[in-house]
Structure formats: structure tokens, C-alpha cells
Specification:
358 residues, alpha+beta, conserved putative lor/sdh protein from methanococcus maripaludis s2 fold, Elongation Factor Tu (Ef-tu), domain 3, Helix Hairpins, 3 domains, six-stranded antiparallel beta sheet
Length: 358
């Protein structure tokens, strides 16, 4: 009797499992196919762009420093503050300059008095010489005395100009309207000549500094329109080649190229890294495979694309990618020529999902 019950229980279990599988299979089989659009893999005999790395910087920027040494009395701004042209940014102790200015002013007073006295003597002896009441030797001595007094007064005035110029370096002001981007000093620090104290830039106008290898620099022409891919926001911005360096003496064999960026609403900042794509057709290169970036599926550090199987299901294929060219990316491995890949789908794709090509 035990054996009969055991056989019945096992049979029931198999029957339930079979029914569950059939129900599951029935659900899978009856799931609607996802409409997709596919493209054929194409190869290009020439790389359509020369891609080089670059960095964004503000078109109008400055690192402000001083020509005098002294303790910082006060820093009037913080990073991120918007300032106007001529606004006071940093005050440096100028007590020694004040003392020197007082000495110069005293010297000017003395030189002015001596000049006025010498001028009177000169005019008086000039009249006496005209009346033959003074010798030529006396007139020559008065002329020399007058010229020396005039020179001493001019020297004293020039010293005053020098001190006034030094006062300008004790009060660091904004050379143009903009935003403070860095502050390298605080009250009580010693300011040294040539060491940047404050950095300022005008937001909104940006340029890109790119380094081009010597093998390609002759192909870069001023005024050429280029595409600049900002990596951090994954957005392409148009620009124009503004300057092309003709020397790599100080840049290690890389030639400096400056690109003026077009006005954009993209949230870009100075220091962001970019990929600059110059439209240079380079002959003699091996064929490359390109697919749209919109077709790429990412999972962590992996990148892939959905392909179409013979049974019309989606199959995720992992790829090894190369450089980006505009809105396309180079496929180094994982996808062969003349294969089809899915560009867009009406629903969420997964491995084995039924699809219908539109």
C-alpha cells in the first residue's frame, strides 16, 4: 500500500510540474514581440575624423599677482563671487610705501623751491646781460644752475610716479568683470612678487586648447569647423579653429591648437576634458567599423549592442569600443561587417526577447 501511495504522489508532482512548465511556456510564447529598428554594420575605409584630447578654458581669464612683497591685510572676495572691473580684491600692507611717498613729497617741495629760485636768478641775469650789466660767464653759470634745478624737480616728480605705481600693486583690483575662480591667499599671508593671489575669469565664453601630433598638424587649417565632445556631460559642441601653433619647442612634440567654442546652453566649465574631432580624411588607414552611440548598451564598465538572432530574438553582444567620431563610435571587436544590430526598440529589450523588425 505504501508503494501505491508513493507512486501516486510522484505522479502528481510530475503532473503539476508539467502543467507549470506548459503554462510558463504558454505565457512566454504568447508574449508580444517588441518592434525594433535595425541597421547594417558598415565599414569606412578612412577614419572620418582626427580625434585629439583637449581642455576647456575661459576665453577671458587672468591670474592676478603683485610686484611687491608684503603682508596681506585683507582679501575682499571669495571663490564664486562676481566682481566688477576695478573692484578691490586684495589689500597688501603698504606702510613702507606711505613713508617713501612722504619722503618723495618732501623732495618735490624742496626741488620746486630750488627751481623757482633758480628761474628767478636766470631771468634776472638774462635782463642784466641784455643791458651789458652782467658778463657772459655769469649768465652761463645761472643757466647751468637753472637747468640743474629743473632736472632735479623732474627727477622728484618721476619718483612720485614710481611710488604711485607701487601703490597700485598693493591694492589688487579686477582687470575686468567676471567671477573669482580661485583664492590662494588669506589675511596675514606674505604676498610674494609673481605668485598668483587671485584668479578671475569671464563665464560664458569658452575655448579649447588641444594638442595635435606632428604627423597631423599640417592638415589642421585655421577657420575649420570642428566638433568638440565634452566627456563629462557627453555632449558635442561645435567650434572653430582660431589658432594653430607652428612650433612644438616647449610642448614635447605636440602642437597647440586653439578652438573657439560656439555659444551654447550646455553646462560646461573651465577645466573639463574634451575630445576634439577635426574633419581630416587620412588615407592609407585600415577600415574601421562605426555604429551610432545611441545603439550602445552599457552595464558598469561593459558596453554592448543588441543583435538579431536567426529566430528573431534579441541577443546582447558585448563589444570593445574605440574612439568616438561625432555621434558614432568605433567597434574594435565583437561585431562583424554586414551583421545587423538594433538601433531602437518600442519596449525594453533583454536577452531572448522576441522582436519584430519594423
Amino acid at each position: 500500500m505504501k508503494y501505491i501511495y508513493t507512486i501516486i504522489i510522484i505522479s502528481a508532482a510530475f503532473l503539476l510540474a508539467s502543467c507549470g512548465s506548459e503554462d510558463k511556456k504558454s505565457i512566454e510564447d504568447n508574449s508580444p514581440a517588441i518592434g525594433v529598428k535595425v541597421n547594417q554594420v558598415e565599414t569606412n575605409g578612412n577614419s572620418p575624423f582626427l580625434s585629439v584630447s583637449g581642455k576647456i578654458q575661459a576665453t577671458n581669464s587672468a591670474d592676478l599677482s603683485t610686484r611687491m612683497m608684503g603682508y596681506v591685510n585683507n582679501v575682499h572676495v571669495n571663490v564664486g563671487d562676481k566682481v566688477q572691473k576695478g573692484q578691490l580684491l586684495v589689500s597688501i600692507n603698504n606702510t613702507d610705501l606711505q613713508a617713501k611717498r612722504a619722503q618723495v613729497n618732501a623732495g618735490i617741495t624742496e626741488a620746486t623751491a630750488a627751481f623757482n629760485n633758480a628761474q628767478k636768478d636766470y631771468n634776472r641775469f638774462k635782463n642784466l646781460l641784455a643791458d651789458n650789466s652782467a658778463s657772459q660767464k655769469e649768465m652761463d653759470d645761472m643757466t647751468a644752475n637753472f637747468e640743474m634745478a629743473k632736472a632735479r624737480l623732474e627727477s622728484a616728480n618721476q619718483m612720485k610716479n614710481e611710488v604711485s605705481a607701487q601703490f597700485a600693486y598693493s591694492n589688487i583690483t579686477a582687470p575686468f568683470s567676471g567671477t573669482i575662480t580661485s583664492k590662494n591667499v588669506k589675511a596675514g599671508n606674505m604676498a610674494n612678487p609673481g605668485i598668483p593671489l587671485i584668479s578671475i575669469e569671464t563665464p560664458g565664453d569658452f575655448e579649447v586648447m588641444a594638442m595635435v601630433p606632428e604627423t597631423e598638424i599640417l592638415e589642421i587649417i585655421k577657420g575649420t569647423s570642428v566638433s568638440v565632445l565634452v566627456k563629462s556631460i557627453n555632449k558635442a559642441i561645435q567650434g572653430e579653429v582660431a589658432e594653430v601653433s607652428i612650433s612644438a619647442k616647449n610642448t614635447g612634440g605636440q602642437y597647440l591648437v586653439k578652438i573657439d567654442l560656439d555659444k551654447t546652453n550646455a553646462n560646461i566649465l573651465s577645466g573639463m576634458f574634451t575630445t576634439v574631432q577635426f574633419p581630416v580624411m587620412r588615407k592609407g588607414k585600415s577600415e574601421i567599423t562605426l555604429i551610432p552611440t545611441e545603439a550602445i548598451v552599457t552595464n558598469g564598465q561593459l558596453s554592448g549592442v543588441y543583435t538579431v538572432s536567426q529566430s528573431n530574438t534579441a541577443i546582447l553582444r558585448w563589444l570593445r569600443l574605440g574612439r568616438s567620431y561625432g555621434n558614432q563610435v568605433q567597434v574594435l571587436s565583437g561585431l562583424n561587417a554586414n551583421e545587423s544590430y538594433i538601433v531602437s526598440a518600442d519596449g525594453k529589450l533583454y536577452n531572448g526577447a522576441k522582436i519584430t523588425i519594423q
